[in-house]
């Protein structure tokens, strides 16, 4: 059965999918986290998450193809165990979680981190890799709840002092891993179903256009400006999540 959404709902969904595609292409990656909250203005957060996951997997195919070979494999592998932990916790707690509480905590975390990155002194050493497991676990959990894995991932990866290309590629591969891990639990819990699948299929062209535009934009933005945009995106994401939680 095809979903019976209002015109406003479809406009928000199309814009959110396009925004996610631009993020997947590597331009201001934190913007993708806005998608579920934006869609949730018109449909339930569960419907939004279920509709978006198949599209994320399609975008991952495009994005991984574009960025493969430029990632830090060591950083990706450090994240994998924690991603499984976070998704497992999200699956077990599904139905008993307060989505508003998760959004509020994630929003505060995003705003605090953005402020820290803007005001902190220049670090002499990158953050220790020992923080990969807790960061990845939080990433897996928040990604499972609302496809909002960017803030905890950025909190770990940005202080690792990767180049722009390595940072984007590492995020891209890691997102593809966590989205693949989530698919089984989403189907099992009914978040991905035939109704959401029809809507997802219809939106594949929008996802593809978004990814291509993101690739075009990132190649024309210098590295210093890129990181400022990521920090700005995290701040905006945080404000949006806090607003959603308290509204």
Automatic annotation (TrEMBL):
Membrane topology qualifier: Multi-pass membrane protein
Chief localization: membrane
Domain of life: Bacteria
Keywords attached to this entry: Cell membrane, Membrane, Transmembrane, Transmembrane helix, Transport
Stretches that traverse the bilayer: 7-27, 39-64, 76-95, 101-119, 131-150, 195-213, 225-246
Family: Belongs to the 4-toluene sulfonate uptake permease (TSUP) (TC 2.A.102) family.
Name the UniProt record assigns to this protein: Probable membrane transporter protein
């Amino acid at each position: 059965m095809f979903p019976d959404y209002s015109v406003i709902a479809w406009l928000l969904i199309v814009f959110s999918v396009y925004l996610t595609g631009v993020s997947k292409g590597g331009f201001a990656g934190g913007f993708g986290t806005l998608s579920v909250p934006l869609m949730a203005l018109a449909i339930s957060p569960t419907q939004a998450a279920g509709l978006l996951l198949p599209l994320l997997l399609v975008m991952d195919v495009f994005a991984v193809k574009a960025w493969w070979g430029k990632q830090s494999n060591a950083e990706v592998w450090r994240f994998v165990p924690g991603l499984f932990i976070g998704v497992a916790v999200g699956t077990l707690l599904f139905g008993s979680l307060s989505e508003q509480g998760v959004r509020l905590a994630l929003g505060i975390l995003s705003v605090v981190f953005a402020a820290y990155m803007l005001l902190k002194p220049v670090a002499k050493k990158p953050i220790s890799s020992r923080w990969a497991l807790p960061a990845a676990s939080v990433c897996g959990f928040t990604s499972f709840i609302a496809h909002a894995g960017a803030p905890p991932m950025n909190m770990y990866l940005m202080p690792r002092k990767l180049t722009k290309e390595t940072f984007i590629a590492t995020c891209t591969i890691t997102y593809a891993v966590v989205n693949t891990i989530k698919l089984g639990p989403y189907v099992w819990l009914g978040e991905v179903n035939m109704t959401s699948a029809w809507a997802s299929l219809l939106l594949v062209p929008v996802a593809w256009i978004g990814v291509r535009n993101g690739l075009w934009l990132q190649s024309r933005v210098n590295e210093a400006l890129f990181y400022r945009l990521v920090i700005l995106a995290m701040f905006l994401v945080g404000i949006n999540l806090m607003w959603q939680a308290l509204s």
